[in-house]
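Re: the 387-residue chain
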Amino acid sequence: MDIAPRVWIGNLFRRVFGSHATIDWTLFVATLPILAVGLLTMSSFEGQNPFFSRQLIWIGVSVVVFLVCSRIDFRFLRRTWVLVTLFLGSVSALLALLVFARAVSGAQSWFSFGFFSVEPVDPIKLVLILILAKYFSRRHIEIANVRHIMVSGLYALIIFILVFLQPDFGSAMIIFCIWLGQVLISGISKKHLLAVVLSLLLVFGGLWFYVFKDYQKQRIITFLNPLTDIRGAGYNAYQSMIAVGSGESLGKGIGMGSQSRLNFLPEYETDFIFAAFAEEWGFVGVLILLLLYAVVIWRVLANSIRGATNFEVLFGFGLAVMLGSHIFINIGMNIGLLPITGITLPFMSYGGSHLITEFAGLGVLMGMRRYGRTMHKDDGHNEVVGV
């Protein structure tokens, strides 16, 4: 091949996929096996399962979103009016859900557009991360002042309540984890942390007696002992634990999981995909999956530390908290250690909303990576907080 065509092709590749300095290929490549095993697990290998083909489309869209975001200069997100607009838009979307959305499985969490549906709470998690990153990056020196903990908590509380009212207890838990993670990273004092814990216990007590519905209470009770209601609220958790345990060391083999293939395990393409995977791949497969997730979280944190300012650093840490919370809660409910909340497993569960959000978050991080090494720290933002 002549030199000129090779140069042209190289330039085209860099324009489309980004340069080595722009994209952390270790991070991106680590997500690919997770996507692949998710597709294998949700496929029935009979050509009749629509989840496989639809997920392929969502993966393609998500990768495009990732590549596009990686080419954008996101310094404009530091502007207060941009984030205020995003926050107000998020609140408006959640309010619209409560008014106009049709309930699906008892929750008003989706906007339906015929051929596809959108779950707004997924991208709203990124908005909350950005809002908190902006707030704490400007006030990290005086973070010991409890007032800033309360103000930041108010941002999260507004979204938390609107999500909880859908009701979507799982996403509400993620919202809380994002806020708590950002507060801890920002350098909260131990006495304030204790105050937060005590306040949460009081809030939980109030929710238990005055807000939680009977089925939500039953989920929590059943989580402590699934065997108390195997045919009712504990059925999903019980079948999930059977699936995980039956995988033993090496699993039953791809497409051979009886719990999922015989429909004993419900929603094995979404909420319980980890249990279906563990049944087919066994303990060894689970260890490899967790290792891949560890690589993803590691690279997210490694890139966030190199952020140009505390805003970029806090965004990266918030993204790691969001992904880590999803992983921890989903696996926890699949093995019977946490109540069933409907939380997806990142890059693996079926669905476009969460998948696009995850890759968009990684893309934003890559976009911030573009100017992370060359730009000097802003005055007053020359130290990494909480690290």
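The chain has one domain: 27-372.
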